[in-house]
Amino acid sequence: PAPENLLEVNNIEVIYNHVILVLKGVSLTVPKGSITALLGGNGAGKTTTLKAISNLLASERGEVTKGSIVYRGEAVSELNPAALVKKGVIQVMEGRHCFEHLTVEENLLTGAYTRSDSAAVKQDLEMVYDYFPRLRERRKSQAGYTSGGEQQMVAMGRALMSRPETILLDEPSMGLAPQLVEQIFDIVKAVNEGEGVTFLLAEQNTNVALRFAHYGYILENGRVVMDGEAKDLRENPDVKEFYLGMS
Ligand code: ATP
Q: What is the ipTM of this complex?
């Protein structure tokens, strides 16, 4: 049987500042339990797509003017980001966004601020440290003094502390050395397999994303130009030529 789709984006248009049409009819589906990658170059519309889903466009004067976004069969376009978190969908923004003056552990605990079950929160903190041993070592450090890779881990760990069903992960590889990128994706895979968390991730690094993802969508200029199983996209001559830097 076909896998159940957790998230469906149907033909959405996004306009910024009432005039700039940035998404020109984007559709995608995210199967439950998958890692689905949203690929494409700078400015293709990846971040805009994620923000449309988590309803974070308003603060940037953007709006979805057409189409629908459905999570577990329910239209969610009108929900604010907090309500979406309650439904189990959380976004990890591009550029990490840690609380720099808090310690690593305090940052992680902010991800559980709506929860009152302190024993379970403590258990989840251990779960996060098991996936990110580096964060356990650095737990007393002020987040602002940790490295870019560690801050990416903090941002992901904090998202995990809300026990999400789906994580929208924006550009996890940004600014990281290749070895660290590999490490971050290894953790994404481990969390996907270990906790059953579904991922929709935006990534410019097509190569690494298609090695770890199950499905991929390639965006160009606000449109999906190709999609399919990651293993098929990896073998596709156009993808090889234009996105994988080999022909
Ligand atoms: P990046 O890797 O740079 O984040 P992206 O694929 O995520 O690229 P978006 O950030 O979604 O692309 O941007 C898509 C287009 O929308 C770009 O042309 C960008 O200039 C434009 N854009 C993004 N944010 C705004 C905004 N707040 N107001 C107007 N235009 C915007």
A: 0.93
